[in-house]
# Entry
Amino acid sequence: MKLALGTAQFGLNYGVSNAVGKVSDHQLQQILQVAAAAGITLLDTAQAYGDAESRLGMMSTEHFQVISKLAPGITAATAQATVYQSLQQLKQPRLYGLMLHRTQDYSPELWQELQFMQSTGLIGKLGISVYTPEELDAWYAHDPLPLLVQLPANLLDQRFLRSGWLDRLKDAECEIHVRSVFLQGLLLMPPEQRPHRFSRFNAQFNSFDTLAQQYGRLNLALAIQYAMPQIDRFVIGCCSAAEISDIVKACQQAPILNTSELALLMSDDIQLLNPALWGQL
# Structure
């Protein structure tokens, strides 16, 4: 199963399409049960996801491996204490992977500290979370590529595919994880339900909306798994057990899009592709 379960909704009111807020304890336990039964084995969390780590630690997560991300602003002096805190909150003996949430927090001293913790067995793979292909260019200029990289991609956001970085990462034997598969749920919303501030992008949504009439929105969004075969895990978020169940089923029904269809769906508008900029709309 190439899916990994994202956990931002477990600790934050996350997602433009999220109308229910943080997931309740009951729903969280149900989500984990459905995910485990479907063969999902990896949880993706972060120190910046509110109380997601501690809530996961109160649930039955023995069937899962866990990746976490260091809080923005992390330093070498505080790294060890924060990693131990995450392990304690998660009630995990080790992390499958640990990533810098922002590459700008990198320093040789911090990376050496993380490598030391890795050598003790507390951390499996060290990695980075990036937002643009240019960040990978900058990283590669001063350090070898890490064994784990998380990046944003969806049928509209094909920047890393078009840049050639997906192939370069695979050639370097990096494990690649993709987030923002549904663009915070925006791709799953029919046109009449999208917030008005996104109306300026109607022309860019037109191709997706047209194909969605043929395949269904969820099925179409998950066509990314065939468009980007280099990806090892697609991190998906949900707010209910029914949603995760629908996503798992839709993975089996996703269409294989041809090159011209993918080209029609692609957008270069960074204001649409980067949710951090949506507050400016």
About this structure: Residues 3-187+229-252 form a domain with the TIM Barrel fold (CATH 3.20.20.100). The mean pLDDT is 94.
